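Protein folding task:
====================
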Amino acid sequence: MTTLPGRRSSTFTRLLRHGFTDPSAAERLLDLPELSSVRSDPVLLEALGATADPDLALRGVVRLVEAEKADERQMLLDTLVTAKPLRDRLLGVLGASEALGDHLARHPRDWQALVTYEATDLHPGVAEFEHELAGAVDPDALRVAYRRCLLSIAARDVCGTTDVAETAAELADLATATLRAALAIARTAAPEDAAQCRLAVIAMGKCGGHELNYVSDVDVIFVAEPADGAEESAAVPAATRLAAHLMRICSDTTGEGTIWPVDANLRPEGRNGPLVRTLSSHLAYYQRWAKTWEFQALLKARPVAGDPSLGAEYVDAVAPLVWQAADRENFVPDVQKMRRRVIDTIPVDRVAREIKLGPGGLRDVEFAVQLLQLVHGRNDATLRSGSTLDALGALARGGYVGRVDAAQLDDAYRFLRAMEHRIQLYRLRRTHLVPEDEPDLRRLGRSLGMRTDPIAELNQAWKRHASVVRRLHEKLFYRPLLDAVAQLAPAESRLSTKAAALRLEALGYEDPAAALRHLEALSSGVSRKAAIQRTLLPVLLGWFADSADPDAGLLGFRKVSDALGKTPWYLRLLRDEGAAAENLARVLSAGRLAPDLLLRAPEAVAILGDPQGLKPRGRMALEQEVLAAVGRAEDAESAVAVVRGVRRRELFRTTSADLIGSYGTEENPAEPDPGALVDRVVSAVTDLNAATIAGALRAAVRAEWGDTLPTRFAVIGMGRFGGHELGYGSDADVLFVHAPREGVDEQEASRAANRVVAEMRRLLQLPTADPPLLIDADLRPEGKSGPLVRTLKSYEAYYRRWSLAWESQALLRAQPMAGDADLGRDFIELIDPLRYPVEGLGEDAVREIRRLKARMESERLPRGADPTLHTKLGRGGLSDVEWTVQLMQMQHGWAEPGLRTTRTREALAAACAAELISGEDAQTLDEAWVLATRVRNAVMLVRGRPGDTFPSGPRELTAVGRYLGYEPGHVGDMLDDYRRITRRARAVVDERFYGA
C-alpha cells in the first residue's frame, strides 16, 4: 500500500479515527501476508477500535495468527470476521491483557475456548471449572488449563456479559476448582499421606468471600483429622506435607508461569504457627489466644477443598466465636487501630495511587462493612455474609447503614474493584497501584467504557468515588457510637486529640486546629452534657462534612450548644429525635442566613425535631398569632418587636425546610422537583411578610387612634410581593391606598394615612436583633415624586389621565396584602381594566414595552457584571421571563381568565393551556425562572445578604452548588448548566417578546 510522499494513506486515517495511537505500526502489521485476507475488512477494524487498546489487540491478533499452524490460520481469521461473539471476546481480551495475549501465543488453540456461547459458558460455576481442569494431571498442565479458564472469565468481563461482582465470584469459583485439582495432584503424588488423614482447605479473604481478584494471594487455613485407624501424631505431619505440596503447585513459577500464591498466614499464630492443626487445636487457640483481627478474618471462612464434612465442622465450630468477638474488651478500638496500621505501612510515594489500601480505597469499604457486621451480626443473622457487597446490602436493608450511604458505597466499591480488575488483567500481576503512564491510563479508562477523554474521565471518576468512600468510611468506620453497641452498656465515646485531628482533616475541615478547640469545649469533662455530646459529635461531624462549610457547621453547633446547653431539652432532643441532629447539621453548615436566624433565638432549634415543624404555616394562622401579640403589647415598639420575632422564627423554619429539602437526609432524599421547592419558599416568605405588615399596621393604628383609623386603609402588594414570589432577600414593594370614613375631612384622613405609613416603616426598620423588613413604595404613581399615600379616587383620576404603559404592566402584580379587605377589592376592580385592556394592547403600547425592556437591559445591568450569570437582568433571567409572560397577560388577559393572576408560573401555565405558547417554550421559560430564583435564594442563604449573581469565592460558590444539587468539584458544571438553560430561555424571549 503506497502513498505519495508527504501524504497519509486512507488506512492511516481510519486507524487514527478508530483509536490507534500508533497508526503507522498498525498499518505495517495489517500489511503482513498473514493478514492479507482481512486487512481491509471494515468489521475487523471497527471491532479493534472498540477494544481498550486497539494497538495491543492488533499485536495480539498478529502473534496468535503467526503461532497458529499454517493450515488453521484461515479458519481463525474466517471465524474472527464472521462470528461476532468470538470477535468481541477474543479482541476484547487481547486489547485488555498483554499476559493473556502471551498465553494465546504459546497455546494458540486455546482461542477456540471462546467460540462456544452456551448458557453454561455465560455463567459457569465450580462444577464447570472442575470439568475444564479435570485433564490436568501435573502442575504445568494445571497452569495451562487454569489460564484457559481465566481467558473465558476475562472475555465475559471485558464484553460486559458479567458485572464486577459476578466476575469476582467466577474467579473465586475457579480458585476453588484449582485448589481441588492441586490437592488431587498432591494426593496422587503421596498416596500414603493421603490415606493417613482427612484434610480440609478453608478459603479465607477474598476467595472465602466469593470476591476474588484476577491476581491475588489465595488465603487459606488447613484443618486435619486422622483418617479411620490412623494416629494423630502421624496424620498431622501427613496432612502438612499434602498442604505444602498443594501450595507449591499453585505458587511455583515455571515456564507456564504461576497460578497464584497460596497464603496460609491467617492461621493461628500466623507464619510462626504450624501449617496444619486439628479442629480441637484451632478451637483451643481461638478461645484463648486469638486477637480481634483474627475473628474479623474468620468472617469470610468457607470450606472449598478436601474433606467436605470436616470443612463444614470447622466453619460450624468457629462461627459462634466470630459473632461473640464484639463482646471482647476493646473490640472496636482494636479494629480501628488495625485499620490505621494498614494505612501507615503504605510508602508515602504510593499512597495517592494505592487503590486498595490507601485512603478512600477498597479496604476502607471492606473494613467498615466488616466492623458493622461483627457488631450487629450477633443478633441479626442476615448480616453474616462473606461477600462485601452482599453484606453491605444486608446492612442497608436492616437499617444499620443509611440507604443512600449504602448505595453510594456499593457504586464506589464496584467502580474501584473494576479498576483493580483491569489493572491486574493487563499483565496478570498482583498490583493495586493506579498506573502513572498515559498509555496505561488511557487503556484503563477505555476498558471501563470511557472513550471521549479516557484519562481525564478516569481520574475524575476515580477521585469522585474515592472521595465518597473516604467520607462515608470515616462516618461509618470511626463512629464511636459503635463502642456503646459493642459493649452492650452505656459508654462515653472518647475522641482522642490525634484521632479527631485525623478525622477532621479527612472530612475536609479547613481549620482542624480551631475545630479541635470546639470539640474540646463541647466534649471535655465528666458531666452528663459532655457525655451526650461525645455520643452526638462523631455523627454530626460526618454530616457537617457533607456540606460546603464543615468549619462553619461545627462553630455554629458550639454556639447553639453554649446558648442552650443548660436547658434540659436541647441535647435530649438531638439524642432522641433521629431527624433533629441531622437537620441541625444541615442547617448550620449550609451558609450564614439560617444559622444567624437561629443564633438570635436558639430555642427555635426545637422546630427541627418536630415532624410537622418544617411545614410552613399558613397566612391565616400567622396573622392570628401576630394580631393577638399586638393586642397584648403595651406599646407599638414592643408589639412590633414581637411581630418581628415571629417573622424571624418563621424565616428560620422556611430556610431550614428549604436547605433540608435541597440537601436531603439519610431517610428522605432531596426534593426532586426544584419548582415545588421554589413555590413553597416564595409562598411562605410572602405570607410571613404579609402577616408582619398586618401586625405593624395594627400596632401603628392602636398607638395613636385605638381600634379605628379615621380613614379606611389598605396595603397593596406589588412586584414579587404581590406575585407571591418573594425571595429571602427581597424588599416588599407596596402601594398605600385609603378612603376617608364617612364624616371625616379628606385632609385629616390624608394626614392620618401618611402618619400610619411613616410609623409602620419606622417600626419595621428599628435596629434590633431581628432582620428588618424594608418597604418600598417606588412603584406608586409618579414614583418617588408622587405622594406616598393616595385615596382611591386619586388613583382613579391619575390612572384615567396619566397612566403609562409600564404602570399598567406593574399593576399586573397588584394584590391586597393588609388592611381593609373591601378597600383592597375596590382597588383591584379599579385597575383590572388597565392591566387587562379589552382587545389587548395596541401596537404602540407593545412597541413601548419592548423599548423599555431593551433600555433596561442596556442601562441597569451593573458595570462589570457577567450578563450570562446575572439572575435578574441577565440573559434568560427573571426579567426576561417575567416581561415575556406579562406581555401575554396584557394582550390576552381580557379573554383568558387563567392569565389573570399575579404569579408568573401560574400565568405561564395558563398561557400554555390557552395555546398562546408551545409546551416546549413554556417549559424552557419555567425552568430558567425556577433556576434563577433558586440561585438568588441560594446566594442569600450562603452569604447572608442578597445578590443577583453567583458568588466569586470558591467556598461560597461550592455552597451554592450543593444547594442546587451539585456535588463538590462540579461548580463548573453548575455554571455551564445555568448558562445553557438561560441561553435557551433567551432564545424563546427573543421570539415571543421581541418577535425576532
Observations:
- The chain has 45 helices and ten strands.
